[in-house]
Amino acid sequence: MTDQTDRTDHPDRVPGAAERLVAGARPAEVTRPLGETRTWPRSFADRMTAPLPGFAAMVRAGWSGGLRPRRADVAADLPALPVAPGPLPEVDAGTIAVTWAGHASWVVRVGGLTVLTDPVWSRRILATPARVTPVGVRWQDLPPVDAVVISHNHYDHLDLPTLRRLPRRTPLFVPAGLAAWCRRRGFTRVTELDWWEGAELGGVRFDFVPAHHWSKRTLSDTCRSLWGGWVLTDRGGRRVYFAGDTGYGHWFTEIGRRHPGIDVALMPIGAYAPRALLRPVHTDPEEAVRATLDLGARVMAPMHWGTFLLSCEPPLQPLLRVRRAWAATGRPRADLWDLAVGASRVLDDGPETV
């Protein structure tokens, strides 16, 4: 089946269209079949919330404070980065469990499925210093992987060496415009979705939702594929939201409206400094907490910090700031799952357990 996707069918392609739509006026989410072949516009640049910084802005950021943390901060903080690998929890189809493997990589157990988010098990990625904490879950300790979700195509979220460890029949859920890349590498069960579309696998619904970000993998493919987050919903209506990479903005309120009752929000809190450069595309800890409240999520689990040093804040600062920001909301401390790398939490009908 081939789907000819036209720009006029999607009001979100037009900058400002989301703000012009009144509450309740949006169409319902669309359910797509698994693995269909689709045709997309050449560029998704009109989905960007803010323009990318130019060369001059990059130079100014480099001169003013650099793009990596100071050596003294790294030396002071690295010994304190929390790493506590443990066995994956035993769960059934009625419970949700999350295990932080590091960066944006999670092992999510939902509806009886094992789902990996943006899996990066490599020690190094392109143009980035090696990871400063080990992968929290050994590859050989993973149960069979039922599905993988990808938020966008940046190298720290789409890692080919890690994907090559998977059987080529592993179902992949990817943003619009990225399926061809996956199929060229031998994957045969690839489902690509636009914002506000979903598909179902094994009783779990995979919904692709907007983010304030962008995409690029080579010199000539800027915004040729889409970016976003994922909402995973089991048969009982329990929901996990995986934000991927995103800045703060209006989408969080809309995601919470369309997907009420999110149980766990996996939120990025790092790679935010210098702020003038990174604010449009990366939330800082305070913005991540605010976004969690906008979503109406019950639990926040921080990610995207303490693994790859992508920006100039001290390595431990995101954790300290998110704890202060969470405390300032008055929400229960137990609902901030500030996990160590390799640690797990289980959500069930009773208290959350480690």
Q: What does this entry show, briefly?
A:
This protein has 354 residues and is α/β, with parallel strands linked by helices. It is built from 9 helices and 16 strands.
Topology:
Elements: E1 2-4, H1 17-20, E2 30-31, E3 37-39, H2 55-64, H3 71-77, E4 96-102, E5 105-110, E6 113-117, E7 147-149, H4 160-163, E8 172-175, H5 179-184, E9 190-193, E10 197-201, E11 204-209, E12 229-233, E13 239-242, H6 251-258, E14 264-268, H7 275-278, H8 285-295, E15 299-303, H9 317-329, E16 344-347
Architecture overview:
It contains 9 helices and 16 strands. The chain is α/β, with parallel strands linked by helices. The protein has a single domain (about 55-345), classed as Metallo-beta-lactamase, Chain A, CATH 3.60.15.10. The protein has helices at about 15-20, 55-65, 70-75, 160-165, 180-185, 250-260, 275-280, 285-295, 315-330, and strands at about 1-5, 30, 35-40, 95-100, 105-110, 115, 145-150, 170-175, 190-195, 195-200, 205-210, 230-235, 240, 265-270, 300-305, 345. Helix 6 packs parallel to helix 8 (about 285-295) and helix 8 packs across helix 9 (about 315-330). The strands form 3 sheets. It has a 7-stranded mixed β-sheet, covered by helices on one side. It starts with a strand and ends in a 7-residue tail after the last strand. The chain is globular and about 50 Å long.
